[in-house]
Every structure is written in structure tokens, then in C-alpha cells.
């Protein structure tokens, strides 16, 4: 007899995610969780910010793990599960699995999500306020849900910002490899104090300047550093910056070169060397490990079907199910889709070479700065209520309008993504550009890499171009041997 399905959903939010200090092979572990419907088994999520092993470099690895706890549960315990990273744009990454877990064993996906997708190309959608959300849904049994548990946990990566002034007296008399060192102490207990040393590199012709920053605790990782030169008026000239957060292979910041040489500074002595003293402003951000990790909320629910079964023999009671009622109500986006489909109260037309597409001025203006300029300034579109789009195909305009009204893209493929990326760039629809470029980068291959490189370069999209160049460098033999590359 089928007793229905027991579910558990575990939502794990990781704050200050970009400051994860982990090297390849190092994992971040969620708070442990357990529910009665899973017979007291204990679980956790293991996330590897720089991949689990060399073959996963450039990826985030994600696993569901059964913890090594003493319990009366059989050695092997089978569940179905779904791991996902929710995204604001709705394009969530997901992995589905079914496995029999022994204690201490985890299952999941080694190449779950590309690091540069999370940290660069889709940062706004995947890392709002530098917080990564990971969702794990587990279930046993089949049929209707008889019991559901929702658990919310939070882990915060600690960071400490330290800004200080490094004053170098008698700068013009500084000898090669002579160190000018100061000590900076943090007021936070157990957190880093640091040593800041400036020196000239020996045998450098114009006097290359290096700044060495060393925290007192080896577990405190310098993640970002920016140095600026102070002039006599108090103004700042940026002269060096490093940020290791985006590195697939973590490179510890130890020595930071100053962009200006000693000779260049001496040439501007009146601006930078009052009484032969050089002043450097240093801004550092340290990752200080996990400072908080805890389950914050647990909700035990019995779905409507289970409640009905339990109360079959009891007196019927009126139950108000707000969630069910809300799910049946159309959202604002649903209503906009209806307006778009029915072409109600349209007041402008987008016209291609072969077809006209009715639309609404106010919505076009809200979604595109270019359309707003056309329809609100003294341009012909404002008076004619016609926007000529003769460089886009009918299907592309249809998909463009669907996206403007619903934030959705249907049946996206390579060809439609390239055309919609062009449209997004032309009409300054940044969200559309990001979604299309992300799709193209995820689906690029050695034969299409040259086409994608030209597209990114044509539209001066530096992040897009860098992602394509990274792919080409990793697959240079196949790319450079392709016929498509020869046609560039």
C-alpha cells in the first residue's frame, strides 16, 4: 500500500560568497539537518567553491552527503534528491539524482555550475548582495505528499576591511631591497593584524616598487587590495590593485607591485614627495573564515491531501488555504502576457520588412532606454507611432516582444540567441544580453568559438569576449584546427 511521499527541502544561503577562501579540493559544509520522516538520518550539503579535483577546475561542485552519525538506521538509506541554485532570472541550475547513501558518502555533481557564470556573467541573478542560495529537495515514497519539512540555514563568510596609511620617509634615499615596514593591528580580537613592507626590487632600471602585505594569522586570507598614491593636496592616484576572488586557482596576494616606478615618482617630486616623504593609502579586505553557520528556521507542514485523509472521520471543518488561492490567482506578469497576446489597447507598431507587431509605448519605454528616447523625444517614431525594425527577422521581433512583456524566452537555440543578443545590445536591454550571452557561452564548441568571438568583439562586450577567449585557450588545438577559425 502506498502511504504517499515524505519531502524535505533544505535552503542554504551563503553570505559573502565571493570571499570563499577555498582552494581546489577544499569544501564548505552546510549546517547538518535531520527530519523524523527520514528515520533520523543526518545530512549536509558539501559545496566546493573552486571545484572538487583538478578536472573540476573552473566549476562549483555540489553534493548531498549523509553524515557519519551513530544511529539505528540501516547502513544504506535510499532517497531521491534535487540540487539547485535558484536565480533571479528564473534560469536556475539543477541536478537530479537517486542514490543509496551509506554513512559519510555524498552524491551530486562535480561540474555543477561554472564559476565565472556565478561570479561574473550572471552575478546579479545568482549572487544578489554576494549571497549564493543552494536548495536541496529530498523525498522518499511515491504519490501525494503526506508530509513536508522546510529548513532554512545561513552561513556567513567573515570579512574584515582594513585601510591604513603607509608613510615612507626619505623616499629618494631608499636602497634596493631595503624594507620600510610598519605594523597594523586590528581592533577585532582573534582577527588579523598585518605587516606592510615596501621595498625596491634589485636590478630594476627605473626602480620597481613592491608592497608586501603579510597577515599575522595564516588562516586570514587577503582577498582584495588597492593602493593609491597621495599627493600634496590630499588627492589619490590609484597605483595598484589585486583581487583573487575570481581566480579559478586561488593565488594568495603577498606582493603587490606599485604601478609607478621610483623614477616616475621622483619626476613628480613636487606633487608626491613633500619633505621627501611618500604616502601610500592601502585598502585591504581579508576573508576570515566562517563566522556564522546555523539553521535559522524549520517548518513542519502537512499538505492539504494529508489533512483531508486525517480528518475523513472527523467533523468537517472549514480550512482557509491562502497558498492554494494565491497560486490560482494570475500574477502581474501573467496579466501582461494576456495584454500582449490579446493586443489590447496597443498604441504603437514595431514594423519589420514583412510584418507589423502591435505593442504599448509605456511598456517599451519601461524596458528599453532606446525605445524611450524614440517615443518621448522629438523623433519620427513619436509622431508616426511606428518603429521600423528592418534589420531583425519576424521571429526575432516576436521573441523580443515576448521577453519585454514576460521576462521569458521560449525555445532558445544558438541561432535565436545570437539574434536576440544583437537586439538586446541595439535596444540596450541588458537583461536580455546577459541571458543570451550566458546561453551562448554555455553552449559554445570549438567550431562555433570563432563566430562567438567575433560577435562579442563586434559589440564591445568585454566580459563576454573574455569568457569566449578563455574557452578558446582551453581548447586551442581544436579551435585553431577548425575550418571556421580559418575564415576569420
Automatic annotation (TrEMBL):
Domain annotation MATH: ranges: 7-138
GO biological process: protein catabolic process
PROSITE patterns: BTB (PS50097), MATH (PS50144)
Every BTB domain range: 346-410
InterPro entries per record: BTB/POZ_dom, MATH/TRAF_dom, SKP1/BTB/POZ_sf, TRAF-like
Entry protein name: Speckle-type POZ protein
Lineage: Eukaryota, Metazoa, Ecdysozoa, Arthropoda, Chelicerata
Amino acid at each position: 500500500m502506498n502511504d504517499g511521499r515524505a519531502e524535505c527541502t533544505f535552503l542554504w544561503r551563503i553570505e559573502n560568497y565571493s570571499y570563499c577562501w577555498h582552494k581546489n579540493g577544499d569544501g564548505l559544509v552546510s549546517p547538518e539537518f535531520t527530519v523524523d520522516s527520514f528515520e533520523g538520518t543526518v545530512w549536509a550539503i558539501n559545496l566546493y567553491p573552486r571545484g572538487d579535483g583538478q578536472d573540476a577546475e573552473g566549476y562549483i561542485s555540489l553534493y548531498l552527503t549523509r553524515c557519519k552519525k551513530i544511529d539505528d538506521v540501516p547502513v544504506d538509506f535510499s532517497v531521491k534528491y534535487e540540487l539547485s541554485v535558484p536565480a533571479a532570472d528564473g534560469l536556475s541550475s539543477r541536478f537530479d539524482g537517486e542514490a543509496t547513501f551509506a554513512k559519510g558518502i555524498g552524491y551530486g555533481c562535480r561540474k555543477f555550475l561554472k564559476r565565472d557564470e556565478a561570479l561574473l556573467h550572471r552575478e546579479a541573478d545568482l549572487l544578489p548582495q554576494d549571497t549564493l542560495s543552494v536548495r536541496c529537495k529530498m523525498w522518499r515514497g511515491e504519490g501525494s505528499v503526506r508530509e513536508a519539512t522546510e529548513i532554512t540555514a545561513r552561513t556567513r563568510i567573515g570579512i574584515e576591511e582594513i585601510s591604513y596609511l603607509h608613510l615612507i620617509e626619505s623616499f629618494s634615499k631608499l636602497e634596493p631591497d631595503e624594507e620600510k615596514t610598519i605594523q597594523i593591528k586590528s581592533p577585532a580580537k582573534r582577527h588579523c593584524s598585518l605587516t606592510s613592507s615596501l621595498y625596491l626590487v634589485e636590478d630594476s632600471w627605473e626602480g620597481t616598487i613592491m608592497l608586501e602585505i603579510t597577515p599575522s594569522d595564516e588562516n586570514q586570507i587577503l582577498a582584495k587590495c588597492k593602493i593609491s598614491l597621495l599627493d600634496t593636496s590630499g588627492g589619490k592616484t590609484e597605483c595598484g590593485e589585486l583581487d583573487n576572488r575570481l581566480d579559478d586557482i586561488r593565488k594568495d596576494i603577498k606582493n603587490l607591485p606599485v604601478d609607478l616606478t621610483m623614477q616616475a615618482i621622483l619626476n613628480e617630486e613636487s606633487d608626491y614627495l613633500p619633505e621627501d616623504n611618500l604616502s601610500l593609502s592601502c585598502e585591504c579586505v581579508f576573508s576570515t573564515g566562517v563566522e556564522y553557520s546555523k539553521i535559522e528556521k524549520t517548518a513542519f507542514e502537512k499538505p492539504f491531501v494529508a489533512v483531508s485523509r486525517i480528518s475523513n472521520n472527523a467533523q468537517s471543518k472549514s480550512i482557509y488555504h491562502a497558498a492554494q488561492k494565491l497560486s490560482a490567482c494570475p500574477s502581474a506578469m501573467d496579466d501582461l502576457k494576456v495584454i500582449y497576446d490579446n493586443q489590447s489597447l496597443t498604441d504603437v507598431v514595431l514594423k519589420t520588412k514583412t510584418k507589423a507587431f502591435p505593442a504599448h509605448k509605456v511598456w517599451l519605454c519601461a524596458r528599453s532606454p532606446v525605445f524611450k528616447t524614440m517615443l518621448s523625444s522629438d523623433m519620427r517614431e513619436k509622431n508616426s507611432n511606428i518603429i521600423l525594425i528592418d534589420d531583425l527577422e519576424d521571429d526575432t521581433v516576436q521573441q523580443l516582444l515576448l521577453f519585454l512583456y514576460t521576462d521569458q524566452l521560449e525555445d532558445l537555440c544558438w541561432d535565436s540567441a545570437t539574434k536576440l543578443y544583437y537586439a538586446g545590445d541595439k535596444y540596450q536591454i541588458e537583461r536580455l544580453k546577459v541571458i543570451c550571452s550566458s546561453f551562448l557561452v554555455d553552449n559554445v564548441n570549438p567550431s562555433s568559438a570563432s563566430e562567438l568571438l567575433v560577435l562579442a568583439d563586434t559589440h564591445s562586450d568585454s566580459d563576454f569576449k573574455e569568457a569566449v577567449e578563455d574557452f578558446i585557450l582551453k581548447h586551442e588545438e581544436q579551435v585553431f584546427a577548425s575550418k571556421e577559425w580559418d575564415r576569420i
